[in-house]
Backbone:
């Protein structure tokens, strides 16, 4: 009796066929034993009746080449491509023990936790493919295997398309499985990685609901639904679906590719965040809360600074309570809440409780309303309206903070009660000047900083013992170098004097201790002193994200990456919408040699603030480290186009040229700076790095010596910066590290 698979038992090349695994439109797959390496493999054969078709055979070869370039834990490994004696092509692949996602879903919907897990794994695998310029174009449950150890792995890059490959037309209607095709795919439009994002969105929807978002009794009807019909929200079919997961699915299924996640890296981050948000809350007494910006409903309409200031003051008071985790001012001020439910807002900010309210100010008269909401229960815990005058504003703030603490059933210690009643100034005039100063400081511009300094100085003229106003001056001078042409050392003395004055008035002011830590870390390389100030600031105000952010940078510089990542992750929990903190987590990952992680966080920061120039610098560094010199150069130029300092952009471009082996172009870029009598230490360090990349160690160390003489801030990263790896074996490098005060 003739067997259905007569090849079983035969040896092909150095593979002994032992069983049949499955068949599909692009081939038949067998289990086999690799006789050379004594391991089980899967062999995929092109159907015999297709072997004579050059186009199909070419597609099969392209599958092997595309997949063999992808080494990732969530992609099935391709070992080899070969052919039988009669010319039949086959691929040798990793043997996966498990079941396809299609078989798993046939037993019913997956739990939310399982679905997020699978979506995260598939997204990470696609991120690897997309980083290599490969789009899968046929992401379906049949092409995803759930292994025995619960890993999701992507199969079958036979429909993959290199971004540089024009031979595989997006107009081919046979490409892809219709139910998972994107609108642009079924219409024959341009196909890129956002098509894979759509397909994963369809799968995510199907995993949690047990049904597909679009239906049709025949292909044309299904295609029409994909292009024109709106899907029913997944949350309507899966009642326990967290809002964050529903938001992800909805964005993946946007009809317009431009409205979806622009990159898979951003989708990876969103899915991982959804998983963290959906994890069971540990049993803890700490209450998580976000104070949303109080609405300004004043008739004269010019009191936004006051309503924002009231929000900040309540946040500042609550942040001093040990049993409260409160989202930072920066995140709540930039949060867009229009059209979102209470549960959605809480899920996106990762909190259980929300405070919202309004301010009506007319002359010296005030009316302030406030509400505390339990988002889990979608219920108001407390609501109150306060009428008074500006002279009573401090009493009102204390009452609001005290009532919130009581409604949360947080035990307030005697020391914390004193904090709630503490008044930084007794002058309402100085207070309003301070609020206006912070309003302009938050604009993060040179003009904004200079206006803030003037207003803080006016506040101090009214109340010379106003510690927060002194801290505001220090913070403004500390940031002038980032938003203007002022160099940090030029404003260092002014910032240091303001911090000293603030601490003389209130030595328990967390903001001042954090600012002092940053100043002495970057300007004096006083590593132990900086650590002392950062840890003190965190102890004084555990919810102050900036202290944790800067301390994470300190930990990174000390080559303590695990602790640095943990610390900046806490900063992100406290200030989840800060592009600077997200970007700097990417920087820490870059220093830890996790370049894909660095790219993901750069993209996440870009999604929040598309014009945030520093993300392009991080992307340029990560791509350079990965050897993708063209992308690195393009990102460096985007950094310059968004307003980065010209000399920094030139140095970055020269470094890209140097790594790419374009020595003449690299040296041409820095020729003008080599002969210039500059006192900009970081520029000199940049020139040193270019010579290091070109292999000229003597020249590199000569420029490092010049940078050291000018106390270049960026020398603080000597121990961890990948750009310095070519020099680490040189004794002069160890000496330089010691001179900067870092242990080797």
Residues:
């Amino acid at each position: 009796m003739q067997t259905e698979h007569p090849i079983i038992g035969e040896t092909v090349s150095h593979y002994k066929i032992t069983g049949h695994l499955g068949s599909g439109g692009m081939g038949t797959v067998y289990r086999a034993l690799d006789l050379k390496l004594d391991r089980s493999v899967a062999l995929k054969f092109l159907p015999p009746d297709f072997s004579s078709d050059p186009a199909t055979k070419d597609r099969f070869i392209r599958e092997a080449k595309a997949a063999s370039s992808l080494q990732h834990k969530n992609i099935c490994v391709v070992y080899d491509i070969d052919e039988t004696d009669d010319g039949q092509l086959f691929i040798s692949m990793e043997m996966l023990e498990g079941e396809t996602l299609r078989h798993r879903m046939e037993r019913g919907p997956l739990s939310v936790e399982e679905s997020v897990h699978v979506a995260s794994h598939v997204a990470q695998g696609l991120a690897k493919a997309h980083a290599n310029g490969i789009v899968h174009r046929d992401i379906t449950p049949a092409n995803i295997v759930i292994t025995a150890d619960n890993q999701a792995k992507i199969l079958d890059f036979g429909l993959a398309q290199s971004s540089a490959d024009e031979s595989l037309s997006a107009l081919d209607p046979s490409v892809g499985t219709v139910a998972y095709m994107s609108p642009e795919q079924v219409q024959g439009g341009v196909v890129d990685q956002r098509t894979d994002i759509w397909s994963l969105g369809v799968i995510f929807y199907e995993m949690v609901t047990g049904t597909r978002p679009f239906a049709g009794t025949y292909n044309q009807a299904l295609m029409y639904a994909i292009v024109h019909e709106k899907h029913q929200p997944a949350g309507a079919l899966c009642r326990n679906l967290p809002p964050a997961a529903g938001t992800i699915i909805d964005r993946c299924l946007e009809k317009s590719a431009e409205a979806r996640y622009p990159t898979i890296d951003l989708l990876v981050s969103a899915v991982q965040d959804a998983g963290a948000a959906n994890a069971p809350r540990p049993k803890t007494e700490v209450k998580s809360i976000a104070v949303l910006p109080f609405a300004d409903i004043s008739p004269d309409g010019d009191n936004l600074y006051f309503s924002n200031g009231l929000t900040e003051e309540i946040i500042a008071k609550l942040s001093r309570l040990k049993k409260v985790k409160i989202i930072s001012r920066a995140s709540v001020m930039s949060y867009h809440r229009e059209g979102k439910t209470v549960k959605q807002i809480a899920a996106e900010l990762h909190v259980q409780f929300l405070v919202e309210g309004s301010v009506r100010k007319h002359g010296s008269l005030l009316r302030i309303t406030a509400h505390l909401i339990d988002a889990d229960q979608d219920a108001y815990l407390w609501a109150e309206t306060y009428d008074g005058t500006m002279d009573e504003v401090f009493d009102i703030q204390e009452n609001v903070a005290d009532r919130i603490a009581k409604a949360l059933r947080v035990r307030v210690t005697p020391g914390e009660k004193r904090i709630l009643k503490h008044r930084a100034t007794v002058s309402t005039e100085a207070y309003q000047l301070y609020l206006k100063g912070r309003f302009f400081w938050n604009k993060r511009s040179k003009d904004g900083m200079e206006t803030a300094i003037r207003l803080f100085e006016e506040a101090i003229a009214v109340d010379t013992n106003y510690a927060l106003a002194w801290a505001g001056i220090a913070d403004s001078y500390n940031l002038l170098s980032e938003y203007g042409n002022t160099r940090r050392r030029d404003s260092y003395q002014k910032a240091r004097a303001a911090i000293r004055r603030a601490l003389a008035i209130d030595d328990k002011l967390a903001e001042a201790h954090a600012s002092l830590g940053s100043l002495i870390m970057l300007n004096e390389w006083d590593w132990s002193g900086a650590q002392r100030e950062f840890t003190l600031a965190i102890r004084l105000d555990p919810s102050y994200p900036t202290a944790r952010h800067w301390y994470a940078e300190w930990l990174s510089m000390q080559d303590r990456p695990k602790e640095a990542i943990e610390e900046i992750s806490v900063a992100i929990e406290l200030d989840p919408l800060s592009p600077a903190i997200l970007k700097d987590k990417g920087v820490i990952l870059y220093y830890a040699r996790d370049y894909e992680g660095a790219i993901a966080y750069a993209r996440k920061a870009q999604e929040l603030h598309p014009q945030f120039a520093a993300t392009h610098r991080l992307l340029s560094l990560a791509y350079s480290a990965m050897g993708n010199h063209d992308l690195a150069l393009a990102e460096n130029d985007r950094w310059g186009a968004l307003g980065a300092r010209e000399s920094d952009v030139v140095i970055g471009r020269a470094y890209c040229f140097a790594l790419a082996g374009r020595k003449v172009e690299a040296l041409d870029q820095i020729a003008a700076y080599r002969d210039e009598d500059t006192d900009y230490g970081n520029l000199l360090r940049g020139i040193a790095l270019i010579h290091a990349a070109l292999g000229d160690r003597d020249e590199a160390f000569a420029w490092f010596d010049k940078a050291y003489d000018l106390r270049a801030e960026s020398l603080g990263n000597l121990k961890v910066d990948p750009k310095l790896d070519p020099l680490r074996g040189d004794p002069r490098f160890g000496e330089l590290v010691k001179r900067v005060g870092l242990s080797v």
User: Anything to note?
Assistant: Residues 159-176 have pLDDT under 50 and may be disordered.
